[in-house]
């Protein structure tokens, strides 16, 4: 899964959440959208090589925690 904003690092993702900005995620392709619960995020977006991975908790389509 990816976030709607193309965060280059996991730290940038965490900083956006700490600043109170709602961060949403999506699953590209013909797959169903994100469901509430834990998801694995990759970044940055394809075609750049993935340099960071994070586990996030979703509620109502918005990331509430990142680890």
Structural summary, described in words:
With 67 residues, the chain is mainly beta. It has one domain. It has one helix and five strands; from the N terminus they run E-H-E-E-E-E. The chain has a three-stranded antiparallel beta sheet, with helices on one face. The chain has a two-stranded antiparallel ribbon with strand order 1-2. It is globular and about 30 Å long. The mean pLDDT is 91.
**Major sheet characteristics:** 3 strands, antiparallel
Molecular shape: globular
How many structural units, i.e. domains? Answer: 1
Question: What would you report as the Rg, rounded to the nearest angstrom?
Answer: 11 Å
Distance between the termini: 15 Å
How much of the sequence lies in strands comes to 35-45%
Mean pLDDT: 91
Helix/strand class: mainly beta
Helix content: 10-25%
What is the H/E string?
A: EHEEEE
Q: Low-confidence parts lasting 5 or more residues at pLDDT below 50?
A: none
The largest sheet has its strands arranged as 3-4-5
Number of helices: 1
Number of strands: 5
What's the gist of this structure?
This protein has one helix at residues 10-18; strands at 2-3, 25-26, 37-43, 52-59, 62-66. With 67 residues, it is mainly beta.
How do the helices and strands line up, and which of them pair or pack?
Layout: E1 2-3, H1 10-18, E2 25-26, E3 37-43, E4 52-59, E5 62-66
Please name the defining characteristics of this protein:
single chain, 67 residues, mainly beta, three-stranded antiparallel β-sheet, two-stranded antiparallel sheet, 1 helix, 13% helix, 36% strand, globular
């Amino acid at each position: 899964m990816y976030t709607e904003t193309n965060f280059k690092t996991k730290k940038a993702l965490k900083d956006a959440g700490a600043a109170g900005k709602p961060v949403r995620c999506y699953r590209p392709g013909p797959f169903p959208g994100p469901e509430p619960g834990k998801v694995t995020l990759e970044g940055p977006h394809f075609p750049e090589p993935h340099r960071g991975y994070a586990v996030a908790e979703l509620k109502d389509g918005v990331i509430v925690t990142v680890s």
